[in-house]
Amino acid sequence: MSPCEPVTLSRKPTNNPTPSTTLEDYTVSSNGFLPEHLPLERLPDPYYTPWESLTESLPVALAKQTLRDSVHCLPVLSTDRLSTEPEWRRACVVLGFLTHAYIWGGDKAAEILPPQLTLPLLSVSSRLGLPPVATYASLNLWNFRTTLGGNLTDPAALHALLTFTGTVSESWFYTLSVALEARAAHLPGMILSGFTALCSPLATLTTLQETLTEIAHTLASLTALQDRMHDHCDPHVFYHRIRPFLAGSWNMGAAGLERGVFYDEGPAMGECQWRRLRGGSNGQSALIGLLDWVLGVEHAPGAAGEGDYHREVKEYMPEGHRRFLADLEEAYPCGLRKMVGELVMADGGSPAVAAVKEAFDAAVAALGAFRNRHLQMVTRYIIIPSRQPGGAGQGVNLATASSARATSGGGGREELTGTGGTALLPFLKQSRDETFRARRLQEVQAA
């Protein structure tokens, strides 16, 4: 088979996106999963000044443990004055930070979220199609500014709009993820265009090989950029001061939320309920979901005690991003892995097909290396600090609960809990191993 010979696929897309469907329909911009324009730094309507004023002093209020009292003094503000999408996103950021600050900003976790936060948070979350909790989108995608003319791919040019601690470490932790998203901003469009081309009669092996090579190249760049976390994020500060605020209420019994959090809607009551929600996690990035899908990575439900976590976590993505992944998965099951597998089964001895298989293996290896590097960062930022003292007066939270397990001598290293409520190390190791398993093309052919 020649590199320029058309690719023949036995199974065409089942729901090929129509020409009228654009990335903008999925709120995917020229900046990828980041917004097209910089996020709002403040809600323009003075009506929302009480929220904005409190977030401006958030690190001080948390340090003095006055945040909860300040929230109790807030008026219950309506979301009716929010109009544009950037305003709704800004409100989501503000309310997400205030909610997590309220829950974790004391000697012990607050089990009841007051109406001042519950009511507007439920409204904003419903409008954006997100759960009422701080997510990757509100912590990272919609929470940054840049220096004039700054490059979004350069974390040194980025600053977080809101933080819990006011530290450089926390700002750097969020904005490095922003830079990673920006560095891969071309992938959604490239992959969508690539599949459209590959499913046409004129598709060639060269087209497929070039797409896979670019994915591998981008992943190598992301892995190198991920290493820059060490530049300005201190492991001790991250583990003991920042990470506790990122926790949700899922699997947080040891940290003080055995039943989750009760969302108090006040006299109206409505559907007041206890909720167990996952906290902010990079696993909620649609970019990670896109890479898993395009390389045909299959995550087994039920493993590591997490149920179908990778599918569930999509509910924590912005609605457009979630729909983008769902439509791609429906139209092109198993992504490029199925295409490559068909080619190998049909003509595995061809040098051109062998080159495509090599490019696919390199792309899978690059995604595996990215996950491996993340595991190394977990060791530096979570495992090691969990065995070190965090100082007096920390109260009960994710850091103190995890440290108690890690120093108990009963295998606590494996029992550490992620901010999303996962069994941290088993989950991450499983995700990495499932990534490398995508190279077994015969498995997807037999499915």
UniProtKB/TrEMBL annotation:
Taxonomy, superkingdom: Eukaryota
- Region Disordered: start and end of each range? 1-26, 403-422
Gene3D superfamilies per record: 1.20.58.480
InterPro entries of this UniProt entry?
Indolamine_dOase, Trp/Indoleamine_2_3_dOase-like
- Polar residues bias located where? 11-26
Instruction: Please list the GO biological process terms of this entry.
Output: 'de novo' NAD+ biosynthetic process from L-tryptophan; L-tryptophan catabolic process to kynurenine
- State the family named in the UniProt similarity comment for this chain: Belongs to the indoleamine 2,3-dioxygenase family.
Q: What is this protein called?
A: Indoleamine 2,3-dioxygenase
Q: Which organism is it from?
A: Staphylotrichum tortipilum
Instruction: Name the lineage.
Output: Eukaryota, Fungi, Dikarya, Ascomycota, Pezizomycotina
